[in-house]
Every structure is written in C-alpha cells, then in structure tokens.
Design goal:
Helix content is about 55%, strand content about 10%. By secondary structure, it is of the alpha+beta class. It has an 8-stranded antiparallel sheet. The radius of gyration is 25 Å and the shape is elongated.
Length: about 450
C-alpha cells in the first residue's frame, strides 16, 4: 500500500493553501461575516431593530399594515426573525416588478422601513455562490469543502504528535518563526470547526448533486390542491386576503408549540400555503417542520414533523444550524464567528509563511501563474457581483460605492502586506538571521 511521504503531504497542503489561497480566503471570510450578518444589519439599519416584548402582534395586523405601506405590491415570502431584537423580513414584489424587503416589527405590527438589499442577504449570496451564475459559483464554493478537509488531513498526517503542541507558541526568533507557530497553534485549536465546516459543506455538495438521492429524500415535493380554485387575478391578491392567524392556529394544532418562522405564499393556482418553523426539537432548521394548508379552508393537506424525521432528512436539516452556528442564538454565533476568523487567519499566515520563505529561493513561475489566475477570477467575480447588485437588487449608489470601497481596502491591504512590504525587505534576505529563520 502506497503511503505518501511527509514531503508529499506538505506539498499538497501548501498547494491548496497557496495556489487557491485568495479564493479560499474569500469563501471563508464571507462565511465568517455571514454568521453575524443579522447583527450587522441591526447596527447599521435602525429600521430592522425591535425591542423585545412579551406578546406578538397579530399576523393579520402586520399584513394590513404592509398593504397600507406598499399598495399595489405582492408579498412573496415571510421570514420571521430568529432573534428577539430583529424585525421580521417580508419579501415583496413592487408594482414595477422589483423586489424589496419590508421590515415588520413582530411586537407592534408596524412596518418600520424597506430596503432593496441587506447585509445578511449580500453576505449569504457571496458565501453561497460568489454571485457567479449557472451553478458554477455554487459548485466552486462547495469544492472548497473538500479542499478544506484535505488540507486538514494532510496537516495532521505530516505534523507528527500534533496533540502535544496545543500550547507551543514560539516567539523571539523573528516574524517567520512566530507566524509558523501561530499557524500551527490556530490550526490545532480549530480542528473541530475545520471538520464541522468541511463535512457540512461536503454534505451540501452531495445534496445539490442529489448523490444517493439525498435531495430527493430530504426535500419531498410540495403537495398540490386537488382542484385549483384560483384564477390569476385572485392569485395576485390572495396574500392580502388570507387569515394568517387562523393558518397559524391550524398549523399549531398539528405541531404543538410551533413557532412559525417562514411563510411561503401560493405562486400557482394549485399550490398550498406553506409554513415552517421551530418546535421543541433542537438543532434543526425551520424546514424540519413543514405544514401545507389549503389557502381557503386552512385544512392541512401535508405535514412533516421534526420529531418524526428519517435519518437522511434529519441530517439534512441539522446541516445549516451546525454550519452557521445559529442554533444557540447570539452566544453560539459569536463562537462560530471567532472560529471562522481563526481559520481565515490560517489562510493568511500560510500565505505569509510561503511568501517569506520563498524570498530566498528561485522565483516559482507556476506560483505566480496561479496568483494571476486567482486575481483574474476575483475580477470576474466582482463583475458578476456588481451586475447582480444592480440588476437583481437595484442597490443604490451609496451601497455600491461602500461595497466597492470595502473590496478595494481589502485588496490594497493584501498588496501592501504580501507584495510591497515583502519587496522592500528583499535586499536584506541574504542576512544570516533571515536565512536561518527561513530554514526553521
């Protein structure tokens, strides 16, 4: 049986981290920020903030206020806030065909404002598919789950007795030795999260490709009405005429204690009213509980309970909470955020170590080619991103300028650290001290 040498494992580890380092960082950093994206919205947008109260407003009252605030529009989707300090977000199609997000206070029922784009939506889209269409972006992101797993595996295999080095942080021997030490220690402490993120990402890949019928099993088709009862005009006006409080009562009669988190409105004449939410079953996403209601009689025509899931469906429904860490509220999200920052630090320190070590060696043309390819891909990514922000989200110019400025700052910081500062020190690389550090 062939066993790769330590040198081979190290080269595989380095190839993943260096050749794909820029894109790897974007995927990891966007996912890290997405963990606290709702809280970022809370910080910058007062319209999305809510003061927790003991009772919730009637859903019918919220819809009536929405119709008054946005006449002529059509609701598409209702996302209730998981956190008590946030407003519900209702996706609305305006008379001109554009989509906007309405922020409904769940305690007062007041529509506090609207926005075409939120931080949460931007970061989730960036992490989900990099704004690259045709499934290319989705699979590019999911491929990094395999690479993250292989990077961890190769590191554990070539770094012998790693479990003894959890607190071994070396200092006083130059920056290169310090960053190598930080890279190792951070990698060791984030092993559980590296495994978690890579395994759930691989599961997403298997679900999207429907490997072993995972997607088919975990996402059964929605039931349909036996007899379509609505014409196209009624379908457009239907969301305004529904009794949401009655629908909620009907859903709770079949799933006691159900906290309704999502409402999908019928988009076809034979489609039901679709509700999902949280029950007393922990660690599952909203879709683990599904209730399909007749939009006129509110009779249940389809039901899925979180406490009665087959294994594949249960695994599918715990992937999101585990991946983003939102199952325990703000405390777990902060832990996941810090773990994500540490993993981003792994990528940056790895790039720094590689760049620093290679200052004393013959330039690697293949590495330069990969860096240029990374840069080209990022430029294409940005092109698709701004096109989507303008065409789909109708993002205003101040938002576009802010996003463009943020990307520019990140790019300039990367250039300053990995190009400008490195080249400035290039004449000194022949010193004995640096040569010894590079061999350490």
């Amino acid at each position: 049986m062939w066993v790769p040498s330590k040198r081979t494992l190290f080269r595989i580890h380095g190839w993943i981290g260096v050749r794909l380092g820029v894109l790897f960082f974007i995927v990891c950093f966007s996912g890290t920020l997405a963990t606290l994206s709702s809280e970022m919205d809370w910080l910058v947008n007062s319209a999305i903030r809510a003061t927790p109260q003991t009772t919730l407003a009637s859903k019918n009252t919220i819809v009536a206020n929405l119709q008054q605030a946005l006449p002529g529009s059509t609701p598409e989707f209702w996302l209730s806030a998981r956190e008590p300090y946030l407003c519900d977000i209702i996706y609305v199609v305006l008379p001109n065909g554009n989509r906007t997000y309405a922020f409904a206070n769940p305690y007062t029922g007041i529509i506090q404002g609207t926005a075409n784009l939120t931080i949460q939506r931007y970061l989730r889209d960036l992490h989900y598919y990099l704004f690259v269409p045709f499934q290319i972006g989705h699979f590019a992101v999911l491929t990094f789950s395999f690479l993250l797993f292989f990077s961890l595996l190769t590191a554990l295999l070539f770094y012998k007795k790693w479990y003894r080095k959890l607190f071994e942080l070396k200092g006083g021997k130059g920056k290169l030795v310090l960053f190598r030490s930080l890279h190792r220690v951070a990698g060791l402490w984030t092993i559980p999260f590296l495994l978690l993120f890579s395994i759930t990402g691989i599961w997403y890949f298997l679900e999207r490709t429907d490997t072993a019928a995972i997607s088919t099993t975990a996402n059964p088709p929605s039931p349909t009405l036996a007899q379509p009862l609505l014409d196209s005009v009624d379908l457009i006006n239907l969301p305004w005429r529904l009794d949401y409080d009655r629908a909620a009562d009907s859903a709770r009669a079949h799933i006691p204690g159900l906290a309704i988190r999502e409402i999908s409105f019928p988009d076809r004449s034979d489609a039901p009213l679709y509700l999902t939410g949280q029950s007393d079953v922990p660690l599952v996403r909203n879709r683990a509980n599904r209730v399909y209601l007749h939009p006129q009689t509110y009779a249940v025509i389809g039901l899925q309970r979180a406490d009665d899931l087959p294994l594949v469906t249960w695994l599918n429904d715990i992937a999101d909470p585990l991946h983003f860490g939102n199952f325990g509220g703000l405390p777990t999200k902060i832990v996941w955020f810090l773990a994500g920052l540490a993993i981003c630090g792994l990528i940056l320190t790895g790039l720094y170590i590689f760049t620093k070590r290679n200052l004393t060696r013959k330039p690697d043309k293949s590495t330069n080619s990969w860096m240029y390819l990374n840069g080209l891909v990022v430029v294409v990514l940005l092109g698709f991103m701004f096109y989507t922000l303008v065409e789909r989200y109708r993002a205003p110019w101040p938002v576009l300028l802010f996003i463009g400025g943020a990307w520019s700052v990140i790019a300039l910081m990367g250039w300053y650290v990995f190009v400008y500062r490195m080249k400035r020190r290039l004449p000194c690389v022949g010193s004995n001290r640096l040569q010894k550090a590079s061999r350490a």
